[in-house]
Amino acid sequence: MAVVINSVEPKSPAAKAGVKAGEKLEAINGHPINDALDYGFYCYERILELDLGTRKVKVRKRDDYDDIGLVFETYLMDKKHSCRNKCIFCFIDQLPPGMRETLYFKDDDSRLSFLQGSYITLTNMTDSDIERIIKMKLNVNVSVHTTNPELRKKMLCNRFAGDVLRYLKQMADGGITMNCQIVLCRGWNDGEELKRTLTDLLALYPAVQSIAAVPFGATKFRSGLPEIKLHNKQSAEEAVDIIEDFGNKMLAEYGERVVYPADELFITAERDLPPSEYYGSFDQYENGVGMWSYMRDGFSEELSQLDGDDRCLTVSCATGTLAAPLMEQIAASVREKFPNITINVFAIKNNFFGETVTVSGLVTGGDLTGQLLPHREKLGSRLLIPPSMLKADEEVFLDDVTLDQVSKTLGVPVIPAGAEPYELLDAIVGSDPVPATFQCEK
User: In terms of pTM, does the model score above 0.85?
Assistant: First the structure.
């Protein structure tokens, strides 16, 4: 497969070698180039021979890690691989009509697993794909859900979903490190099935370096799909007990838990969230595992390094209903050190997707403005929101309402407060000495 070169960076090694936009890259040092993984892997040598079809060009780099300066039409150099499954728990199948087109695309691309950390089901893959992953030593994230082949076929609605489980051991034997995910569906893959899955996956340790169990979530638009009951206190308790039993055994034997419940399971089970040390290296942080503890403990540490003062201001924080209790804890700790700071925390119910959706990242601009407009007088000098409410690298919510529109409607600056504890603390109290205008009247 030849890949068309869209442009060449000026003064780059490729430009100095005379490579031109519009030429087709067929191979590097004799290795065929099909996509971004091939390109990145075979570009490591100092001297590269580019096969451009009609001619061959020598490119010389000063360092192994230098970019040679070729730009292609897409990030992957071809199209994303779409999902072949019809998973019973798929969130995309529960979206309402009329949203932006990109939200309906289901990717299941092993290249994005390595490049961006997304999870793959393995059903898109062939033996040659697995061989390439092993050859390139590409660590991957895998949506396993169950290691029962027949159950996996039913849950993914794909007759090959059970067969490809053999790739897990093949990758483990090839030295590939995997993070694994289980979307825990009550009555489907919990209980004894969960025990089976954890037993099978932990047998592949240390190749399987972490496992996250996250609860199934449903929107009000779920229809025509198999029935799955939402987790309640009892089912969440049972799941947490199973996971912690396996985690405690791994901790005792290997010094790390490996398997973790998502924060939402702890909260649904009405259990206290563990300290940050519980989560080791936070390998499953992006899966909602340890986020609460990381922010709570990190914020407490950052706050302890500040001297309180008499600054007087009002700040508001809006978040999903799941994280609202954490924000109330954080607000209370700030008030202890800064008694004249008023922090109003607003738990935003998800009317757009349904109130069973509780995470902050799925709060829309419409719900935010609709629920805060009656409280405009309480918002103070600024409204802080989690950055997860916005599209990556863009100031737009899931319903295409912009950050600027929300700010104008509410009449206050709306500020993504940052994902790190120090960023949230700075957004609330500021790091500069208190100005005279913020002194309270005596």
Answer: yes
